[in-house]
Design brief:
By secondary structure, the chain is an all-alpha fold. Helices cover 72% and strands 3% of the residues. The relative contact order is 0.18.
């Protein structure tokens, strides 16, 4: 029971962090139709900015300043990059963001080097929140979950209850009408891209010290974010939320389970010998296959439900 509850809490906190990262990409895609390959790079920028700001004025100012700086970079990218290549179609946008991801990574190498930096959990949060059986659960994990849930509520209220949210949604479906009413639609899209980038930056601020801040962090988490967007349904925030929790919990449990298919067969009363076909495959443990499971889930989703968990059917 202790293992189950602890793993469930860890999986939920990791899943919520993934949702904070994937929500920005989902919003950008649903509003602008841009699949941003550099989105995880904004996550990395947020972590490095938070590290640098924390070194001078502390973690709490960094929690606010770093996402705002990332939002500014995101808006500049949309205004002077994506908006220019948009007229050449989606392939040009994909190539632009793909190249941007490499440019950001090399810039990180030039400024902070190729090794990890010491971005640590702040002392005020570096303690136990509560004890679960014999396990002291970290307060910072609880903080991560609280920030993620607060962000989810803020996004929902902004998009459904505020004037700017109504303008954003109207700009998606009726841009000409919104322009006629006096709103600057390109500026709205720039703000949307900046807001999505800020969410990625915020995920970097609270995730960089919980895991590790190093130049490969974008490449490590980027593919998982795209898996979440596909599994949840392209452009669906609710789907991204469900998929994030599902993949977070799936990976957390799988890395801790050291059982092989041979062990499973033995429990079912079957014996798999060393001379059995594909013997090496049966010896694999669940923890060894953990990195592959999200991608296997994505492939199965594309085969049996291409629109994703909450996606809408096209056509």
């Amino acid at each position: 029971m202790e293992f189950f509850l602890t793993s469930m809490l860890n999986g939920t906190s990791y899943g919520l962090l993934l949702f904070m990262l994937s929500s920005g990409l989902t919003i950008i895609f649903s509003m602008m139709g841009v699949l941003n390959f550099a989105h995880a790079s904004f996550y990395m920028i947020g972590a490095y900015f938070a590290y640098q700001i924390s070194a001078y004025i502390g973690f709490w100012p960094a929690l606010v300043i770093a996402p705002l700086l990332v939002a500014g970079i995101g808006m500049a990218v949309e205004r002077y990059g994506l908006r220019t290549v948009h007229k050449y179609g989606h392939v040009a946008e994909l190539l632009f963001t793909f190249g941007l991801a490499y440019l950001i990574e090399e810039t990180i190498h030039l400024i902070w080097g190729r090794s990890s930096v010491e971005y640590k959990v702040p002392p005020s949060l570096d303690m136990a929140a509560f004890t679960l059986f014999s396990t002291a659960y970290p307060l910072y994990r609880v903080f991560m979950m609280a920030v993620s849930v607060s962000m989810l509520v803020a996004i929902y209220l902004t998009l459904t209850r505020s004037r700017i949210g109504l303008v954003i949604q109207a700009s998606l479906t009726h841009p000409d009408t919104v322009e006629a009413l006096g709103h600057n639609v390109p500026r709205v899209f720039m703000l949307v891209f900046g807001g999505g980038s800020a969410l990625a930056g915020l995920a970097g601020v609270i995730g960089g010290n919980a895991f590790i801040t190093e130049p490969g962090m974008a490449a490590a988490v980027g593919p998982i974010v795209f898996v979440i967007v596909v599994v949840g349904g392209m452009g669906s925030l609710a789907g991204a939320f469900i998929a994030s929790l599902l993949i977070g919990i799936l990976q957390t449990f799988s890395v801790a389970l050291d059982y092989s298919f041979i062990d499973l067969a033995a429990k079912l009363g079957m014996a798999i010998g060393p001379d059995a076909p594909l013997a090496a495959l049966w010896k694999l443990t669940i923890s060894q296959t953990a990195p592959v499971l999200p991608y296997l889930l994505m492939v199965l989703m594309l085969i049996f439900r291409p629109r994703g968990i909450m996606g809408t059917r096209e056509g």
